Amino acid sequence: MKGLLAAIRGYLSDAWGAWNTFWFSPTDPATLSMLRLLAGGMLLYTHLIWSLDLSGFIGPDGYVPVSVLRAPQGPDFPAWSAWSVFFWIKSTWLLWVVHVLALVVFACLTVGFFSRTAALLAFPLAVSYAYRVTPGAFFGLDKVNCMLALYLLLGPCGARYSLDRLWRLRRGDATDPEPSVSANLAVRLLQVHLCIFYLFSGLPKLDGSTWQLGTALWWGASITEYRSVSLLWLADWPKFAALLTHATVFWEIFYCCLVWNRFTKPLVLGMAFCVHGGIALFMGMITFGTAMIIANLSFLKPETVRKILDPVAGRVSLALVGKKVS
Amino acid sequence: MAKQSGNRQSGEEQAAREKPAKQPKSPREKRPRDPSMPWGPWLRALVSAAILWHLTAVFVPPWFLWIAPDHKATPNTPPGELVRDAQGNDVPPERWESVGVARQWPPLVSWLNDIVFHYANLLYINNGYEFFSPNPSVAHVVDYEVMDDAGQTIAEGRLPDLRDQWPRLFYHRHMMLVEQTQTPDVPPPLRDVADTAGEWLLTKYGGESVRMTLRIHHLLTPKQVRDGMATDDPSTYEEFGSFVHRKGDVPEPNAAAETIPPPNTAIPGVSP
Questions:
Q1: What residue ranges do the domains of chain A occupy?
Q2: ipTM attached to this prediction
């Protein structure tokens, strides 16, 4: 009995230790900073496009007026629960003022200027736009953008690859950013969220006859409205189309297990690059495909990120402030 | 009892006398903090609880939206038994209550969904991730023709249309606009969005009426493509319906009050 209790105690102690190491080890903020740079750019571009018909999509009386959009929520639904600043904006000039301010925030987030403040503002703004077009014109891109913005605000996302860093360097502070627990926490939460994202993208496909048969990829590729590069040659390669269909379902469902293993991780991330690159290239959803690839980059180790980005950051800092960032 | 107590007291006094004088306590030494774990155990425990709560809120909505959407409604009848009226006809889910059959909700997931509901709403993590599921489906397009008060056409176009809507993301937004008002999950006031979209087109082009035609764009089988048929062949478009919207003819938003979903339904305003 004593042996059993000791074994249970040992197991719990090990599990708590592993939990702590996973969530609370300090890490170099390089990965989080890279995510800020890329996700900020994606947020900026996504919301810049609304400018082409801001009143039509976001304005109070556009294609889907705010009153019609909110009607299904009913009078008892608390306004703070699914909240958008655009639910209260009535005039066009104010709509544009808020829109321009939002673009400035997303631009600041991208270049890392007052990064923490920008991240703190970017998330509620991204959610505001998303709720204004849900339903109406939202799609997976809005979900990924909001997911990325949510976790960026948890950690020091401007510690590297940012104007904030260059500003510190210019003032003579050349110290390397400290490893940070909150940077690790933010990246870990994004990674686990992404696993859940893929799991519930894969499981519902098991309900579909075309995914079971292996023809779903063909039907997806044959939708003219999505197509940017033709995949109609798959008509001659039904077994290949079926292989890709089944591989997609297996990959989505098992992503949450295989991405943590050091041997399968490169394969899983390589598949993510192929699938989302394919969606971007062949199905015209360039922004969604890119946003998903950005989310997958959260699995890159800070050392890998630094190996790739530090030389570029060094050249930029040399050009802008005359000193090379370490 | 009192005697026993007195004996114990005298014994304790004797023990205290025999004890060496108590050394003054040295200031409590702090255990050096593990550099690999800068946050203290209490903070870590607190944040761990927050992580578990948050991940539950991330996990539950897509789970709920997968198993309990309107089109998958399960009647409260024995497995395999269909809901029929007195004439033996199938009864659709929206009329189950009229024949005394309730809808079943998954007990655990519904309960969890109720708990995380507002938190998930606030963070916009109340989504499903069901892309192209359960099956890829046909696309829809809307052709519109805006007319002035004399009935002359002043503008016409298609939603979505790659020639008019550029860059690609802008086109995709128009595509979603059409698609998201065609799904069975969309509640009635949004199904009437053609009126409000028509009103917007009138505002945009300064017209008096607009004719909108919804077309379904059917997909081709591999054999049809191998036989040389084009995916945008006119025969692949089926006219689903056409109507004319006149300026100011907008549905009352309050008319939707009857369509409030039950409290434990999917997040209002959000489809998978």
A1: 26-158, 181-284
A2: 0.97
